[in-house]
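Figure 3 (text version): structure tokens given as input.
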């Protein structure tokens, strides 16, 4: 298993963490293309089911009852049984639904699977167990924002592996000046050249499109994330810098998510001292991108979601500074926080108070080594998620 579902706290822990699996399930099912009709909520009777609208495999769209069960913390990694999912048919009908979706951090028991199979003539059903969820996240780089937000340690280990792989390739490239080129060397060099050419084509289409179209175009960059090296990362980050500079023109949340997710997908790792200057240069570029997103989204479009993804870029670079023993990155992040606060405050407007509070929350959270959004105040939650109370 690549993803450790125990990173999401158990539902009985109390505090902000107790709802994390339900929130993950909501974001996961939205990523699959479903519309949320009823969000997860907490009440006297415990967490209520979600209701979503959508379809699988281009079938007719229907209402689905979504049940979330987080058993990963049980001693035996216990399956979800019929006793955990009682009265499925009654629950579906009473909520005016036609289908059932189970989102589980373990697996469904054979008895539960058989029960759903017997109901197939009356209701549709889909089960997403831990392995199916992992496959639908890890194998789709455009969904890696779910990976890093909810499973930070697992994501970091995964990227560490990929970066070691990239480091091997870069080391091989450096030997080319003293050893004859092998067929594998030529293939790797040609692949990098082709990727750079394709990036330029995508970049041209991106800047000639409107914001909605840009959200789809920039996601095309993910397909190169498993083939990255310092040269590819340099071109990707140049692209992202140009994109971040246009924040004030109306950047959407989808584009902001992609800029952050692409940053962590292509950020290089190397233990070679000769690469440190280049890594610091690219990290500085990322910090400047974060400034553009946070400042312009605050001043010109007042989009809290874009602001939060910009601030999470700062958290990521701060984390990389600690992990790769690059204290200069920590200083750069702290410096840019001071610049953002000072520049926004200089505007002297009362409507920036909430934004400054949001910035302070992320700044206070930067040392925790996680890429999750920090818990929001009630006021900020109402502003940012007005329809998700």
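Below: residues designed for each position.
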């Amino acid at each position: 298993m690549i993803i450790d579902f125990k990173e999401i706290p158990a539902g009985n822990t109390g505090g902000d963490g107790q709802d994390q699996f339900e929130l993950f399930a909501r974001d996961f099912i939205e990523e699959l293309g479903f519309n949320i009709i009823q969000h997860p909520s907490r009440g006297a009777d415990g967490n209520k089911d979600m209701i979503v609208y959508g379809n699988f495999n281009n079938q007719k769209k229907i209402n689905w009852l979504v049940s979330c069960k987080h058993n990963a913390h049980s001693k035996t990694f216990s399956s979800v049984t019929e006793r955990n999912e009682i009265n499925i048919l009654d629950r579906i009908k009473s909520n005016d639904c036609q289908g059932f979706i189970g989102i589980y951090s373990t697996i469904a028991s054979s008895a539960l699977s058989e029960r759903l199979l017997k109901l197939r003539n009356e209701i549709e059903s889909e089960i997403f167990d831990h392995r199916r969820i992992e496959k639908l996240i890890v194998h789709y780089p455009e969904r890696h924002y779910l990976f890093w937000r909810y499973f930070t340690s697992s994501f970091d280990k995964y990227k560490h592996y990929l970066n070691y792989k990239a480091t091997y390739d870069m080391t091989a490239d450096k030997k080319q000046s003293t050893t004859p080129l092998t067929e594998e060397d030529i293939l790797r060099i040609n692949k990098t050249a082709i990727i750079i050419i394709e990036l330029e084509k995508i970049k041209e289409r991106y800047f000639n499109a409107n914001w909605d179209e840009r959200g789809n175009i920039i996601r095309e960059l993910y397909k190169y994330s498993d083939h990255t090296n310092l040269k590819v990362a340099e071109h990707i980050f140049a692209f992202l810098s140009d994109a971040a500079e246009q924040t004030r023109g109306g950047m959407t949340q989808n584009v902001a998510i992609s800029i952050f997710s692409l940053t962590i997908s292509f950020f290089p790792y190397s233990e070679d001292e000769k690469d440190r200057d280049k890594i610091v240069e690219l990290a500085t570029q990322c910090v400047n991108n974060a400034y553009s997103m946070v400042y312009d989204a605050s001043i010109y479009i007042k989009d809290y979601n874009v602001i939060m993804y910009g601030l999470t870029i700062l958290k990521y670079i701060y984390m990389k500074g600690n992990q790769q023993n690059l204290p200069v990155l920590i200083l750069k992040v702290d410096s840019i926080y001071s610049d953002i606060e000072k520049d926004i405050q200089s505007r002297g407007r009362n409507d920036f108070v909430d934004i400054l509070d949001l910035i302070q929350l992320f700044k206070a959270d930067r040392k925790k080594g996680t890429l999750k959004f920090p818990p929001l105040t009630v006021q900020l939650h109402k502003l940012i998620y007005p329809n998700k109370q």
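Residues 284 and 332 are 7 Å apart (CA to CA).
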